[in-house]
Specification:
The complex is a heterodimer. Chain A is 0% helix and 52% strand. By secondary structure, chain A is mainly beta. In chain A, strands 2, 4, 5, 6, 9, 10 and 11 form a seven-stranded mixed sheet that branches. In chain A, strands 1-3-8-7 form a four-stranded antiparallel sheet, with no helix packed on it. The N and C termini of chain B lie far apart (37 Å). Chain B is globular and about 40 Å long. Helix content of chain B is 0%, strand content 56%. Chain B is mainly beta. Chain B is built from no helices and eleven strands. Classes of the chains: A mainly beta, B mainly beta. The interface between A and B is medium-sized, with 19 and 22 residues.
C-alpha cells in the first residue's frame, strides 16, 4: 500500500511554456501533499504544502504565481510551472501524507514519495 | 531549518557496518529516514517519533534521542543493495519535513 504516482516522469519543454505535473495517491486518501524540488546532488527542498480544498502554503522564496498548485481531491494534486525558464529545470517530487487511521493509508505521518518528474527547459 | 547529517559519504565493503547521524538545532517531533538511488525518488525507510524510540527493518535500524535532537541510522552487515544516498527528514510540529544534505553510501563487493 501507500503508492504515489507522478505524471509525467520526464518532460522537455521550450522556454516560456507551462508544464503541468500530476501527483496521485493510488491506494489512500492524502490529506496533505508536498512538492519538493531537487537539484543534482543536492537535498530535497520543500516548495509548498498542499491541503485538499484549500490554498497551498508556499515556502519562503518560492513564487506562488510561477508554481501553481491545485489540490482538487484527496487523491490528486497538480503543480503547474508557468512560463518555464532554463533555471526551472530540476527534479520535481511530490509526497503524500494520509490522515491517521484511514484504512489502507499510512499509519502516522509517513510521507510517501512519488517517482519524480524530471523537467528540462530548453 | 535543515538538519545536519554526517558523514557526507561513506564507503563500505559488504558485511561492514556504518552509522549515519542527523542532528537539529530545533526541538523535534519526529525523524524520518529515506534512501534514494540515483535518478529515483526517495524511498521511505522508517519514522521515529519522540519518546526516544528505536526501530529496525532487516539490518537497518535507527534511534532517536529527542532531548539531544539527534537521530542515528545504523547499517549492519551492509549489502550491495544498501548503496544510495540516505536522507533524514526532521519534523517539528507542522507535518513539514526539512531534509539534511544527505549521506552517500557506497557498498562494494
Amino acid at each position: 500500500g501507500a503508492v504515489v504516482s507522478q505524471h509525467p516522469s520526464w518532460v522537455i519543454c521550450k522556454s516560456g511554456t507551462s508544464v503541468k505535473i500530476e501527483c496521485r495517491s493510488l491506494d489512500f486518501q492524502a490529506t496533505t501533499m508536498f512538492w519538493y524540488r531537487q537539484f543534482p546532488k543536492q537535498s530535497l527542498m520543500l516548495m509548498a504544502t498542499s491541503n485538499e480544498g484549500s490554498k497551498a502554503t508556499y515556502e519562503q522564496g518560492v513564487e506562488k504565481d510561477k508554481f501553481l498548485i491545485n489540490h482538487a481531491s484527496l487523491t490528486l494534486s497538480t503543480l503547474t510551472v508557468t512560463s518555464a525558464h532554463p533555471e526551472d529545470s530540476s527534479f520535481y517530487i511530490c509526497s503524500a501524507r494520509g490522515a491517521v487511521g484511514l484504512a489502507g493509508g499510512p499509519s502516522y505521518n509517513e510521507q510517501f514519495f512519488g517517482p519524480g518528474t524530471r523537467l528540462t527547459v530548453l | 531549518q535543515q538538519p545536519v547529517q554526517s558523514p557526507q559519504a561513506v564507503i563500505l565493503r559488504e558485511g561492514e557496518d556504518a552509522v549515519i547521524n542527523c542532528s537539529s538545532s530545533k526541538a523535534l517531533y519526529s525523524v524520518h529516514w529515506y534512501r534514494q538511488k540515483h535518478g529515483e525518488a526517495p524511498v521511505f525507510l522508517m519514522i521515529l517519533l519522540k519518546g526516544g524510540e528505536q526501530k529496525g527493518h532487516d539490518k537497518i535500524s535507527a534511534s532517536f534521542n529527542e532531548k539531544k535532537q539527534q537521530s542515528s541510522l545504523y547499517l549492519t552487515a551492509s549489502q550491495l543493495s544498501y548503496s544510495g544516498t540516505y536522507f533524514c527528514g526532521t519534523e517539528q510540529y507542522d507535518y513539514k519535513l526539512s531534509f539534511g544534505a544527505g549521506t552517500t553510501v557506497t557498498v562494494r563487493a
